[in-house]
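debug: dumping io for the single-chain case to check the tokenizer round-trip. Nothing else runs in this session.
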Amino acid sequence: MTLKNFSLKISKPIKNYNKLISIDSDKSISIRSFLISSISEGISFVDNALESEDVKSTIEVVKKF
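debug: decoded output
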């Protein structure tokens, strides 16, 4: 298997986003919210996340990073 290299250049960083987004609990969305929050600057709040084993595992992995 050949590994491919890639690079990413962000020419215009996203400005501060200070909004509230309300959606129903969903495993996939809950996991993505924690992953996106983990790479964001500042403090992110995730409320109403689905409490499943997959989501809890994701939280534990993000904490270890």
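debug: round-trip ok. The chain is about 35% helix and 0% strand.
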